[in-house]
Write a structure and sequence with these properties.
37% of the residues lie in helices and 23% in strands. With 497 residues, it is of the alpha+beta class. Strand 9 and strand 10 form a beta hairpin. The N terminus and C terminus are likely disordered.
């Protein structure tokens, strides 16, 4: 059997060929970009906190006016730079000239905060130029076919502006009054707005960004954990207003909160039916199932498709009420993403605490190279946020002192962890792998995790019963096998689902 395109055989065995991934072009290390991003996050002490703003009617109107002014500044600034770019006239001096022009134009309304909006636009253009350099060197991923200049802050379907406010780091401060909230003071605009949210970190504050989404105001507050404020702005220092009752945050001035209690290694295969399949060198096996994530996604998919169909029907018929259903469509999209985000972060926090208690010092994550780009479908692009999950794992595991390393996982699902050969028909059920040579049965995702361990030079011997959990909106719950369950299918279904 010939290996797939982009791969070549590594070695021959009696049962088959175990291929090794070799990229056909571009970057010889397909994990390099993500590894560099992980290293950059590990070297950074910044953490973002999201606060829910609760303005009264008058404050809402003031915020809306300021936000529309910021959007107008950004869009006008971006339009002039785009026109200069298309004419081939966008140099560094030209960009500085445009920036000065619009800073003085909006300085009377926004004050020095106009500088924050301009800086945001310059960051977008810097990213665009970096992508152009990668394209010129042939280092863009295969799925990236076009690199476009920065767009505008507006809804591409209706043309409505996306309301955002940017405030310079020294032009606001917080006044917490209890562990659930406080007041956000915008000094240049004379606003003192109540917020709800818990802050567990302490350090220097960064540029504040306020967004208006589906009728709600959110403030994104960056904190340089442990950083000292400048002498010119002693108020620009965020202090925690919440004491973690579970003791997870002991020192709010440091991201790392704990040291590993052991020297064990863990190996993880990620999927969707089994969100995490983890084996450890001391014999533990954990399965965190993602059935609720799929259920949540498909429920909201039905809601979103309904609003979209009604919107298009009314729009094609010429009824102006289609805008109402477009707003419902956007709200459903936002709610779906928020719920999935909550489920993923809940499962990641549970996994970090569990592995820390089991003495794990380092976690190896199998990375499906070019899966979503070359074999994309609804599962691995819309529901399964693989890249985001990996970055969230890095951030959370850093608090527990657990090191994270990405490793390729090509053909770990087909390779047999019992005999080391490849059985193309070894996976007979969704969650069952049978060795054709020995007849032994093993959970398919656990089999992949064991293969990841062996490729890293570790031979894991399972000495304990598999622990199964399911992530829900109320936390991660253990799963007990149902009576008279099908023993050939290791997937245990929750009776409540």
């Amino acid at each position: 059997m010939a290996p797939p395109v982009g791969e070549r055989p590594r070695r021959m065995t009696q049962g088959g060929t175990i291929p090794r991934f070799v990229p056909t072009g571009g970057d010889p290390d397909p994990l390099r970009a993500l590894r560099e991003e992980i290293a950059e996050r590990l070297n950074s002490n910044w953490r973002d906190v999201r606060l829910r703003l609760l303005p009264i009617e008058v404050e809402h109107g003031r915020l809306m006016g300021i936000g529309l002014t910021c959007v107008k500044l950004y869009n006008e600034l971006n339009y002039e730079k785009r026109q200069a770019f298309f004419k081939g006239e966008l140099t560094r001096d030209k960009m500085r000239e445009i920036d000065r022009k619009y800073y003085y134009k909006y300085n009377e309304v926004l004050g020095v905060n106009a500088q924050a909006v301009i800086q945001k636009n310059n960051e977008a253009w810097s990213s665009f130029f970096e992508l152009l350099k990668l394209k010129k060197r042939g280092r863009l991923p295969p799925h990236t076919r076009k690199v476009s200049p920065p767009g505008y802050w507006k809804d591409g379907f209706t043309g409505r502006k996306e309301v955002r406010i940017l405030v310079r780091s020294d032009r606001y401060h917080l006044e917490p009054f209890d562990e659930n909230g406080g007041y956000l003071v915008l000094e240049d605009f004379g606003l003192r707005i109540r917020y709800a949210g818990r802050i567990k970190w302490e350090g220097k504050q960064g540029r504040l960004e306020i967004v208006y989404v589906n009728g709600k105001w959110y403030a994104y507050l960056p904190i340089e954990v442990g950083g000292e404020p400048p002498k010119s702005n002693r108020k620009g220092y965020v202090k925690p207003n919440y004491r973690d009752k579970k003791g997870r945050i002991i020192n709010p001035r440091s991201i790392k909160q704990r040291d590993p209690v052991g020297n064990e290694k863990a190996f993880m295969d990620m999927g969707l039916n089994n969100l995490f399949a983890v084996v450890t060198t001391n014999g533990y096996v954990l399965l965190v199932k993602g059935g609720v994530i799929k259920s949540e996604y498909y429920w909201w998919k039905r809601e979103i498709s309904t609003y979209q169909a009604v919107r298009d029907l009314l729009r094609n018929a010429g009824f102006p009420t289609w805008i109402l259903y477009h707003e419902k469509y956007l709200e459903a999209m936002h709610t779906r993403d928020e719920r999935l985000r909550h489920l993923y972060l809940t499962s990641i926090r549970f996994l970090a605490e569990t592995l820390w208690n089991r003495g794990v010092r380092k976690l190896y994550i199998g990375y499906p190279i070019m899966l979503s780009q070359s074999n994309g479908n609804e599962y691995n692009t819309n529901i399964w946020w693989y890249r985001k999950i990996v970055l969230w794992i890095v951030d959370v595991f850093r608090e527990y002192g657990i090191e994270v390393e990405l490793v390729p996982e090509h053909y770990t699902s087909k390779e047999c962890s019992v005999c080391g050969e490849v059985h193309d028909d070894g996976r007979v059920y969704r969650g069952l792998y049978i060795c054709n040579k020995t007849g032994k049965k093993v959970n398919a995702d656990v089999n992949a995790a064991l293969n990841i361990a062996r490729r890293q030079g570790y031979k894991v011997k399972i000495t304990r019963k598999i622990e199964s959990y399911i992530v829900t909106r109320n936390g991660v719950k253990p799963l007990n096998p149902r009576r008279r369950a099908n023993t050939l299918d290791p997937e245990v279904r929750n009776p409540a689902l």
